[in-house]
Amino acid sequence: MRRRIWCWSVIFLLAALTSLICGDISSYKAVSTTAITAAELKEHVRYLASDELEGRGAGTKGAQLTREYIATLFAEWGLRPMGENGSYFQTFTFPGRLRLGEGNHLELILPNGQRRTFIPEQDFLPLALSSNGEVEGEIVFVGYGISAPEKNYDDYANIDVRGKIVLALRGMPANDSKFAQEATFPTKLRVAREKGAKALILVSGPLSPFEDEPVPFWNEPAMRDAGILGVTVKRAFAETLFYLEAVQRQIDENQKPFSFAIDNVYARLKVNLQREQLSDANVVGLIEGSDPKMKNEFVVIGAHYDHVGFSIRGGQKQIFNGADDNASGTSGLLELAQYFAANRERIKRSLLFIAFGAEERGLIGSRHFVDNPTVPLDRVVAMVNMDMIGRLRNDVLFVLGTSSSPIWRDLIADVNSQFNFTLRDSPGVFGASDHFSFYNKDIPVLFFFTGMHENYHRPSDDWDTLNYEGMERIVQMVAAVVERIANMPERPQFQRVPQPAERPAAPVRVSTGIVPDYSWEGEGVKLMGIRPGSPAEKAGLKAGDVIVEVAGKQIRNLYDYMDALNSVEPNKPVTFTILRDGQKIKVSVVPEPMRREAE
Question: Residue 596 — φ and ψ, nearest 5°?
Fold first, then answer.
């Protein structure tokens, strides 16, 4: 059922610690009981996962409407605003998508003085990892732009590209998969930069399995630029200079490099990429505990409200409504807020309800909260997270993070005796949701989750696919757990736990145990956390460090870091240079062999 969201002008009645949002909320009266029920959970999900909110993408109008919906209900139930300036909203900004700025330019200057200009988007496009800037220089063709002497192939051997603009084919010689890592855009950009080139121009050869079109920007925001200008072009650019097909055929058939300078030809290239800065917010409300002393401690109940938005394919709009991910957890958060608001006398500690924004973009909202808490973080005794609780099957419920406090397993088992779920856990803390931000601040966490499914991050994750009776039981169990935590005489003790095997974005042979901060906009790889017992921890690395060099190689982004790991051996010391509190520090890390899932 589609609902009309009220206008979002908020009037806070400070004396009563409540707020009203103008407009008619009578249509919401179907959700009126203070009990936790399947019917109310369904009504919340039907709105949160409606087409009207367009997938609740972070930084979008749909996310804003979602925040208003949550804040309206917090106000109606009497939760105290705990955001900024007496509101429920804690705002933050984050990098959005790349856009072409003004002045992108590519021009060839031929020996006869003739100039040929190429049109942005039509003839060429900057790569998402390109730096901004303007260069002019001679052109050197470097085959596939691959330098892999250990594999008996090096397009850069015996040719000087320092201060030049290099032109290279996309892909790999004869499409030989042994060069798969070297054929990636990040690696080709890094190699060109390290060889001293000013810029890299990539073209799809006639014998390559790629269309003759500039490569569009990636859907997700790219990380830090590669430190060199980079563009992709149509074949007409290269074919102006030499017979591209014949050159590519010679390289592919002989499996030998064929690189050469292009005499008396110059290129001028300007790249101007602009990254959007988007605004989003957490929604934060408080229910004060009943004990005069214990009310100064807090149990955080959290769920992220954002999803991945929509896409346009073939001219058709596909909305990713995210019913399970995470309208389900958000509806559970709302039901718990309503329930405890009506039963304040049952809790001694205070409950802080947080609907997090931008979780799908790298836990940005929860990380912003723990770095900028609106209550003293040292008084947060636990964080309980709900993410994807809508697909209960065969009564199997995942409760993760139970090793983050020595009391969790017994508490969960005791509470579950009322509900009879078949409980499942997993090694470590499962860092793919907002509880991980709190765990990294030494706060015990629990994470309720019903498992992955075929509709995950697909348009088919819609409201009518959820198990609402199962959700009702899960949220009732969460309520019982929260009540126990809020009333226990002593706060739960925190403990760090071994983390599961890493799942790298690209195949690597070794592991160091770092948890990258994917929202970092600076140069290098910033660490969000460290896996306990890992090589990184043994070397003294810690959250907040920025890796800027590995084994003598400059690290500008995560791709450089993954490339560097591919060149080191397990169980052999490697020198890492890190930035910590503005100071450069060298540490010795002994990478371990990559552990696999079966281990």
Answer: -105, 170
Q: In the predicted model, is pLDDT for residue 504 greater than 70?
A: no
The DSSP code sequence of 551-599 is: TTEE--SHHHHHHHHHTS-TTS-EEEEEEETTEEEEEEE-PEEPP-TT-
Instruction: List the beta bridge partners of residue 351.
Output: 287, 299
Q: Which domains does the chain carry? A: 10-97+276-487 (3.40.630.10), 103-271 (3.50.30.30), 510-593 (2.30.42.10)
| pLDDT, tens digit (0-9, with 9 covering 90-100), for 545-594 | 999 999 988 998 888 898 888 888 889 999 999 999 989 999 999 999 87
What distance in Å separates the CA atoms of residue 317 and residue 319, rounded to the nearest whole number? 6
Q: What is the pLDDT of residue 411?
A: 98
What letter would DSSP give residue 130? P
Q: Based on the number of CB atoms within 10 Å of its own CB, is 109 exposed (0-12), middle (13-18) or buried (19 or more)?
A: middle
Distances (CA, A) of 237 to 11, 52, 201, 213: 60, 45, 10, 11
Question: Which of the four pLDDT bands, split at 50, 70 and 90, describes residue 240?
Answer: very high
The amino acid present at 181, given as its one-letter code, is Q
Instruction: Specify the 3-state DSSP secondary structure of 115.
Output: strand
Stretch 83-101: mean pLDDT, rounded?
A: 92
Asked if pLDDT for residue 502 goes beyond 50, the answer is no
Return the amino acid letter for 249: R
Spell out where 185-272 has E strands.
199-203, 229-233, 260-271
Q: Is the dihedral of CA 544, 550, 554, 555 positive or negative?
A: negative
CA–CA separation, 174 vs 160, rounded Å?
Answer: 25
Residues sharing a CB contact under 8 Å with residue 555, sequence separation 6 or more, in sequence order: 524, 525, 547, 548, 549, 561, 564
Confidence of residue 8 (pLDDT cuts 50, 70, 90): very low
402 — alpha (psi -120 to 50), left (phi > 0) or beta?
alpha
Residue 217 backbone dihedrals phi, psi, to 5 degrees: -60, 150
Tokens of 296: 């100064």
Secondary structure class of 389 (helix, strand, coil)? coil
Q: Which helix (H) or strand (E) holds 298?
A: strand 298-304
